[in-house]
Amino acid sequence: MKVKVGVSNRHVHLTDEDIKVLFGSIKKSHDLSQPGMFACDNYVSIKTDKNIIDKVRVVGPSRNYTQIEISKTDAYFLGLNPPVRESGDLSFSEVVTLIGPNGSIKTNGCIIADRHIHITYEDLKKYNLKDSLYVKISGVKEGIIKVNLKPSDKATLELHLDTDDANAFLLKNGDLVEIINRGEENEENDYRW
Amino acid sequence: MKVKVGVSNRHVHLTDEDIKVLFGSIKKSHDLSQPGMFACDNYVSIKTDKNIIDKVRVVGPSRNYTQIEISKTDAYFLGLNPPVRESGDLSFSEVVTLIGPNGSIKTNGCIIADRHIHITYEDLKKYNLKDSLYVKISGVKEGIIKVNLKPSDKATLELHLDTDDANAFLLKNGDLVEIINRGEENEENDYRW
């Protein structure tokens, strides 16, 4: 079973309230692969005491929490130590300042997104999958990574990795990687290439 | 069997001739873990048509080739597509301009270093190791990576990773990771966590 890779560059999800402060309103640029999600023609700067990263894209639609997703490489640059989290889990997330054209906010919500596969509940059941599984990456920098499953009613089957994971394995958008087991919690599990 | 991680940030190795053009001479800052290797108090900028990265450290002693080791993340920033190579193999390496305080040179030699373990010939024989092996990384972003072995007469046993690999697996200098097999080329090989 193969799954397509989607590489997530650093980006932010915003509440309606934070959108208002930073931009007034947001404007859709183009649809993303996951149903209902879209990239916006709106960008923030992420500022910390140590550094600033400009031109970080807003991903819509608005959410009921503001979340800033960066890589570990970004985290070192910004002087942060964000936890690796599933989207929406902002416990112990880092605090940053977001600067938009209309204003700025200081907010928690900065995380490193976990490696996850978007999948429908239907496929989860069909393929008898659990919470996580292992994916094999071939090529000159080969390896196996553990990946969480993120089921929803509507989803395009896709493995989302951040730029650190993608660059470590020389992966790019649309590459195919192989699911090598179904994540059974079994000490005797074999990992065959 | 465990092995210590050494994270290699971007750096350059230089010929005597290139040292002369860029700096006149180099000055040792401190010893590195591999016998005879040292970090210098000398830095270059790496320049391409697209971008520039400043403050890239020189690693001594001089070599009979000039080699620029960057990460895939750096490569995107610089607009390059360097190959993944063992140190010293500069076939199809990228061309960059190195700028020092005394002068600049345009040279090939820009690569992404392969994941490698420094090991003595003695240990290679003792542990019955081959050209490569697999290393397990534990933690919140767990996985297995294939790693080349780089034997020499004198070596400190250490796994060298670039910043992309280190950041993808949340590894830092001095972390311990586990060798899970000895790299036998065997289709039936098992990978047990």
Q: If you average the pLDDT of chain A, what whole number results?
A: 93
Q: Please describe the biggest sheet of chain A, giving its number of strands, its sense, and whether it closes into a barrel.
A: 6 strands, mixed, barrel
Strand content of chain A: 35-45%
Overall number of strands of chain A: 14
What is the overall number of helices of chain A? 4
Main structural class of chain A: mainly beta
Instruction: Give me the side-by-side strand order of the main sheet of chain A.
Output: 1-13-10-12-11-14
Determine the oligomeric state from the structure: homodimer
Distance between the termini of chain A: 13 Å
Inertia-based shape of chain A: globular
Order of helices and strands of chain A: EEHEEEEHEEEEHEEEHE
Helix content of chain A: 10-25%
* Rg of chain A (CA only): 17 Å
List the helices and strands and how they pair.
The structure is a homodimer of 193-residue chains.
Chain A: E1 2-8, E2 11-13, H1 16-22, E3 28-31, E4 38-47, E5 52-60, E6 67-69, H2 72-78, E7 84-85, E8 94-99, E9 104-113, E10 116-120, H3 121-126, E11 132-137, E12 143-152, E13 158-162, H4 163-168, E14 176-181
Parallel strand pairs in A: 1-13, 2-5, 6-9, 7-9, 10-12
Antiparallel strand pairs in A: 1-14, 2-6, 3-4, 4-5, 4-8, 8-9, 10-13, 11-12, 11-14
Question: What is the structure about, briefly put?
Answer:
Chain A has 193 residues and is mainly β. Helices cover 13% and strands 45% of the residues of chain A.
Task: Describe the protein's architecture and organization.
The structure is a homodimer of 193-residue chains. Chain A has 4 helices and 14 strands. With 193 residues, chain A is mainly β. In chain A, strands 1-13-10-12-11-14 form a 6-stranded mixed beta barrel. Chain A is globular and about 45 Å long. The C terminus of chain A is likely disordered. Strand 12 of chain A pairs antiparallel with strand 12 of chain B.
